[in-house]
Amino acid sequence: MSFPQLAFTSGRSPVVCTNGCVASSQPLATAIGLDVLKRGGNAADAAVAVAAALNVTEPCSTGIGGDCFCLFYDAESRQVKGLNGSGRSPRALTLSVIEQCGFDEANPLHPFHALNITVPGAAAGWCDTVDCFGSKKLSLSDILQPAIELAERGFPVAEITAFQWAKWMGALEKFGKKPEAFLINNQPPKHGQVFKNPLLAQTFKELAQYGRRGFYEGRIAEAIVEIIQQNGGVMCLDDLKNHASLNVTPICTDYKGVRLWEIPPSGQGITALIALNILENFCIKDMDHNSADYLHVLAEALKLSFSDTSHFCADPDKVKVPVQELLSKEYCKQRSELISFQKANSQLEHGIPAGSDTVYFTVVDKEGNACSFINSNYMGFGTGLAPEGCGFTLQVLLNMFEFGMDPQQAVDAARLYVQYKKPDKKWHVSLEDGIAVSVAEDLKERGHDVQWPVTGHDRAQFGRGQVIANGSWWESLSSCDSSKQERVLWAGSDPRGDGCALGY
């Protein structure tokens, strides 16, 4: 199947509004979130409605079978609260079980193997987000109903989603997996083709009616366990029944006067905070945007932060994660001193950074509450096992803070992607089309393994950012006095996705 090469230039100005705003990777999901705000729901209510709608419209990126993470800013208390909605491994999964199945370091589990499946945490995460942070004006049923109707009536599949849908379905077919619930006439849906998912609608109805019990006990739980065990996994009903989200205290760092928040480990948001602490030791403003010096320092900071995260980040109930030490300004200054302007680091001693397929979206309501939400399947359709009958990034911040871009300009700008690849044990740097050839050649001379230019649908590796800002603070950080200005929300949505930002 061939697809046109998309230019990925949005040509859009930022969305500006004064009441509520939603930005996501799918227009139908964004509209549903905005409707929830207009019906009296708050940012948390709208975020769950968007998550469910994205499950319908982008099942190749996100879904109720994955995990979620939520940051919620409470405007009344001026506190940031967090919820870790990720699931744990089955209790019966031990190293000896993996070895008995013939897997070890020399012959690792394939990413699509059922032994990799953790308890899906998103369903409980949605329930807990509404219970802990919601307005109490709308029930879970009210919040899920738009997604239920969307799944039952069907929706026309958007262009970029259609490409990703076919790509991941093709990857699954190589391993003998072809979930029929995600096909039309045995084929992935095409751009503009109406796709319905009545099985997912029924799953949402049971979650809406019975709460978490509707997912983690009974019919759905039994279907999850059955498909996993049929494919060599060891998850049992008790693993699902005993699952619970975690209310967590978010972690933060201050970058030149701006405070940034993330979910603590086991979430991997600490990666961005470490990188910013490292970058704080460099005069970024003195470097031209997307110049060789800027991209070199950014790549090196990301290599260091990814290495630390992959080595230290784990379940804090099982392993002590030295969060304070990793975020200490002194430690990050020491790490920054490992960066040479003349030569790239090709190998680092700590671990391997992991990849994922995830959606990020954000909501701000008229009271000033804000919800930052991630919902992930890990890779595409995840493992590709479908239970029977159940059918904000670092570079964007720097574009705004250091180079004075508005939210839409910040997400439009060309990006880099840093990845450590196992086969050759080297770091690789991908540069998006729009970065000058002279910059790519300069980075190669410094020792970076560079892929340039990355164009068309391959730009998906750079992620999809969504931004809502309160006021145009990036225009003049030194002189802007927000207390004298009427509140205006500024929003941008990534052109690498099908989505948009909407406000009222």
Would you give an account of this structure?
There is one protein chain. This protein has helices spanning 27-38, 43-57, 95-100, 122-133, 140-153, 159-173, 198-210, 213-216, 219-230, 237-241, 270-279, 292-312, 323-326, 329-336, 394-401, 407-412, 437-445, and strands spanning 15-17, 21-24, 67-74, 79-85, 155-156, 194-195, 246-248, 251-255, 258-262, 357-364, 370-378, 416-421, 426-432, 450-454, 466-470, 489-493, 500-503. By secondary structure, it is α+β, with helices and mostly antiparallel strands. The protein folds into 2 domains: 24-247 and 357-391, no CATH class; 269-353 and 416-429 and 437-450, Serum Albumin, Chain A, Domain 1 (Orthogonal Bundle).
Q: Which blocks of ≥5 consecutive residues have pLDDT under 50? A: 351-356, 382-386, 388-392
Number of strands: 17
Structural class: alpha+beta
Task: Estimate the strand proportion.
Answer: 15-25%
Quaternary class: single chain
- Sheet with most strands: strand arrangement: 7-4-3-11-10-2-17
Helix content: 25-40%
> Helical region count?
17
Kindly give the count of domains. 2
Mean pLDDT, to the nearest integer, reads 89
> Over the alpha carbons, how many angstroms does the gyration radius reach?
22 Å
What is the approximate shape? globular
Largest sheet, in brief, is: 7 strands, antiparallel
